[in-house]
Structures
1.
Amino acid sequence: MNGDRTTRQALEALVMVADGPVPPHLLAELLEISAEAVEALAAELQAGYEAEERGFVLTRVAGGYRFQTHPDVDAYVERFVLEGQSARLSAAALETLAIVCYKQPVSRAQVAAIRGVNVDGVIRTLHQRGYIDAVARDPGPGQASLYGTTALFLEKLGIDSLDDLPSVAEFIPGPEVVEALEHGLRVTEG
Amino acid sequence: MNGDRTTRQALEALVMVADGPVPPHLLAELLEISAEAVEALAAELQAGYEAEERGFVLTRVAGGYRFQTHPDVDAYVERFVLEGQSARLSAAALETLAIVCYKQPVSRAQVAAIRGVNVDGVIRTLHQRGYIDAVARDPGPGQASLYGTTALFLEKLGIDSLDDLPSVAEFIPGPEVVEALEHGLRVTEG
Amino acid sequence: MPYEVSTSVFEGPFDLLLQLITADQVDLYEISICRIVDGYLAELERMETLDLDMATEFLLIAATLVELKSRRLLPGLDDGDLDEELALWEERDLLLSRLLECKTFKDAAAALHRLSEQASRSYPRLAGPDERFLSLAPDLLAGITPEALRDAFIRAATPKPIPRVQMDHVAPIRASVADAVEELLDELPRVGVITFRRLTQGLVERLAVIVRFLAVLELYKQGAIDLEQTERLGELRVTWLGLPTELSGMPIEEYQG
């Protein structure tokens, strides 16, 4: 049936695009079917991937469903993770991390506004590496994720808490300075 | 054959764990096959997903392969993906982008001359959103930044490279438009 | 009104002219230059900051259009100076090629738009490797001290000045050709003969001067005044002739729509 096919495709698409496990009840809600139907559909997909000898599997982990690579090809994935990624933070990435660190909780858009460039890729990398995490949601429209640093970040930096970070207050120009700067340099309406 | 199966599975797995388009040469290196073999394998996978009516597609975009959701189920995915969706571009931004795209590397002043309006704000927005970047400096006096489009621009359009864009010759107005303009601007009556 | 200037999609002087000539199939002969000017002025007024580049661009176009129009309104000028005639053709060709270029990129932009609309229906997987592989990835924070992080923050948070011309002193322009015509209708009958220079003496804004000039041209077209210029780029003398009878009473009705 057509409806079934679309539901199955939508399930695959949702899990594919998610950057973490998707809870079955959320899938049920989005697909407008029961949680049992979600589980049945997932089982069907799992069997299909296995029969077709796909390089990925649909697994059920603590938080829900997600795609993972097939254990048989772990060696390739390991090499890719080791070799395919840069070993150092770029200056731009370091600035982004610093903003998240000192301004947390902060949204991606806020970081982008400070840096003046798109930071999506950098935020994703920092998130994947576990240095930052979504700690809250913006209560405003859009409910953007607000990011903060993690325990791993503190550990890597060699400090016990954010209070141990060097203070920046005396270095940052206050709002009145920024305003004066902008007034002098920008075109204002007469 | 076993070797083939593993290679195919590894290809699927590598694209699955990548967080951006994976260039064929990197896949070729990791899979220890030729770039041509990678492309053939990818084409085979694409055909397979289509035949099986999967909810995802393997696309070639911005110089590499990545998994994307199938456009047919976009209504479901849209509801799920709240963030990371880039806002629509205004008509002014699109026109500026078209000029940068077809004339790159190009200076702000050159774009402004074509559009007949100041483009500072639009250029800044496009730069902030990561669609264009300063790629060179004008060797002449003033050393103005010359702009070009980015890989993110290719991703935004869903194309593999600038070569996939229609030639600018296709947009040059036809004789009827030229005639209408000539008529509108004719010097003498009649 | 034979046509509408759609200012809501106003994107610059070429756009407006393109729209007028192609979309609306309006002959330049029928376009009231003054209405175009007023459309622009209304738009300039709406802009948050005065865009001198655009104002200049517009003036160049308006000047070319005025010249083309006057050529056609006054066919007797055909046997004028050949150099002037050629210069006018050159201006026209320049304007034409810029309009064609503008149209080319408008259509290219539409194609880019279609591509991006299509692409926006398909969402990429960006999840990255799962936690089993994370320990393999190189430690990106190796060698980074808290001080280095602070310095990076200060670098990022220090506002970068955007160099722009200081224009606080420029008052927003509040003039329209219609207003300028009214002013002239008030002033000219009283003075009779006046040079254009004197007529614009009190005006500081270049744009206001241009608006006055266009108003003068409009009255000339109506036959209300005579213009005299003894040498090229010389003093322009404006002589009040009186309002043609069919126009008196409602002389500038045309501008109010």
2.
Amino acid sequence: MSKVYPTAAAALEGLLKDGQIILSGGFGNCGIPSDLIEAVRDSGVKNLTAVSNNAALDGTGLSLLLETRQIKKMISSYVGDCRIFAEQYMKGELEIEFNPQGTLAERIRAGGAGIPAFFTKTGAGTLIAEGKEERIFNGEAYIMETGLVGDIALVHAWKADTEGNLVFRKTARNFNPVMATAGKVTVVEVEHLVEAGEIDPDHIHTPGIYVQRIVHVPDRVKLIEKRTTRPRPAK
Amino acid sequence: MSKVYPTAAAALEGLLKDGQIILSGGFGNCGIPSDLIEAVRDSGVKNLTAVSNNAALDGTGLSLLLETRQIKKMISSYVGDCRIFAEQYMKGELEIEFNPQGTLAERIRAGGAGIPAFFTKTGAGTLIAEGKEERIFNGEAYIMETGLVGDIALVHAWKADTEGNLVFRKTARNFNPVMATAGKVTVVEVEHLVEAGEIDPDHIHTPGIYVQRIVHVPDRVKLIEKRTTRPRPAK
Amino acid sequence: MAWTRDDMARRAAKELRDGYYVNLGIGIPTLVSNFIPPGMTVQLQSENGMLGMGPFPYEGEEDADLINAGKQTISELPTTSYFSSADSFAMIRGGHINLSILGGMQVSETGDLANWTVPGKMVKGMGGAMDLVAGVKRVVVVMEHNAKDEKKVMRECSLPLTGKGVVSLLITDLAVFEIDRQHGMTLIELATGVTLAEIAEKTDARYKIAPGLAGR
Amino acid sequence: MAWTRDDMARRAAKELRDGYYVNLGIGIPTLVSNFIPPGMTVQLQSENGMLGMGPFPYEGEEDADLINAGKQTISELPTTSYFSSADSFAMIRGGHINLSILGGMQVSETGDLANWTVPGKMVKGMGGAMDLVAGVKRVVVVMEHNAKDEKKVMRECSLPLTGKGVVSLLITDLAVFEIDRQHGMTLIELATGVTLAEIAEKTDARYKIAPGLAGR
């Protein structure tokens, strides 16, 4: 039973349905599952709830699914960089649930780890606490947050073996490993695909148990949102 | 400010006090911080609460501190392999709190991650649930467990750099990374010590922020509890 | 003619499916790995932090850093990955393991399992058993039908529970029972030569009899 | 003579200690990294999953996989480690970061901070700010004392809070205040040429005046 599929469309075939919760890795434009998101767009599936830290820049990442109005709700921590997001949100066409970034990450980690709820200090005494159970531990106020799982998780990894063991690269790791744990089905696009046994088992970030389908996307050009540099010192 | 100390005793100097909670990595005899435990023994500190999955075999690991009666309480998931443990426990000289192994791991993970409490299905409807809050999520019973932190965490790693970035080896990883996150002070013994920059930053299991003190223990002989083998196939 | 330990392991192996991730307990469950059908890929999880557990190492290749949850030396496979205890039990608790095969002391007709402690004896601890039965999607218990003259397949367990309503399938040396939280226990197979009367006599639990077995 | 942005960053840098792990927000806080005293080792955390954040890369060495929480390209150091967002915020929430230096819109005399949204304007989201102020041991806010004619150092924040009782030190272009949950706000420094009268006029919060400043 091979986990490897020839194209992003093939890797998603039979999985997508209207109204699903889709988890997507990535931070800004870094480490986003671009090919898989394009395949979701091309599938035409709609009324999605997208869980992702950001919506990426206009014309990239999840904003592609905003353009086509396939997303009805987003759960994110920051969307300030996306114009189309702002437009649809201000017009009331898009529902948004803001979660503090760490709460979002932990809710997804909890979802993947079988933890239905946990307490965190983050957001206690703020708007975020409204409607949530508050409890005092050791004299400090905490609020209860719930675990979050998705129907499908879309993940971008640097390298995978055919067993689905994943390695991420630098800060492109971000939300990807945690999304991989919380999808009922997890689909991964990888820049490098190798045979099982070619990755040192102590270097694996995400064990293959979390990965149901893999597509090899070797040639994707990765975008940089803010290109900041310093001058080279004179020799 | 160097994190590297010349001996295990030096690495613990000024940290130990009677009545502390000591977290110790290791599973059975695998990946236990042997040199550090010996240094705790030699310090004479007492009335300790030891948090560790096991007590190791007689004459090794935490059982050394049982021999000297420095431990008044253990929080563990399984202690069946340790005779001295059984003796002291049956005589009522040692207090024991059994936690399911996954609950123990998650309580420590939560402690290190600033989560005072979480819900888990593990142990619901059993003795473990007694005195704990029970709550239904999605029709299933869960119990509330609390985060756990220690005064000192003792960790065994395979490799460290001088910044305290750690790499573990095979199943000697076990409880070590999570213990490292939950000690107010974390002291690590390492088989290999290298300069900062010599470990690929994508291969680091525990970032240096969790490590306050390091001691290099290159020559320790590692014990095997159950040596099981298969015959080589005939050529 | 009760089933042998190998027979029971062979029967348990029929619960495996291609691509499954499986956790095997100590004792008879460990034997199940000898009966994985050829061509079927199954990855074994060891809850101390490993997926893709290989067989015992060749003599001389034992590695103190490479043990299973039973503390035995084992070996790596090409599919192997390692992770921490916290990550291991996140995997277990999160329902990512397809199947766990465990030993038992008592199983009830509602799927309760007792397998970790006997009052009055030295308590060794539950290890990862409570997490496994609570977290794994499908729990199969393999155990002797009776211990000497004591019944072990019960209306209610008398021993402290490992988990409540967690067992999906019970394989004993005499028979196989399906357990469903709503519909209770059903006897679905008999070991060769075992009669319905013998099961009735040796079982405290109430159970239905699957249609194919009636009259045997 | 109010402090410049660089002056404020230089003042904030005095809060650094050797061996500290520090998270710097966007804007003036980012400038603090230019004023780390020689010989002092400080590791910067970027909440998208990096410790040991280096400077901007040399031209031509930008890497799309290596950005900070402000989405700018950055570089690695010998001390660098990478980790997931969940691990990053476990680190933040768990109190392992010694110091966070952030920008602010309003700070109250009890240490409340508002810096993420203004009612009526487009909501961009709080990102990691709520986690940082809740989790980091010591939170320093650097901001202008006033916005045009609006006061920003308040008895109570009028804007939605980022955190309640979280700010330990407030550095403005005019002054520095210590904030203690029990003892309230204390003015401890004035920018060169700034008078107590000017602070009194421009501040809504109630504050004590540190002994050394009285009469200026």
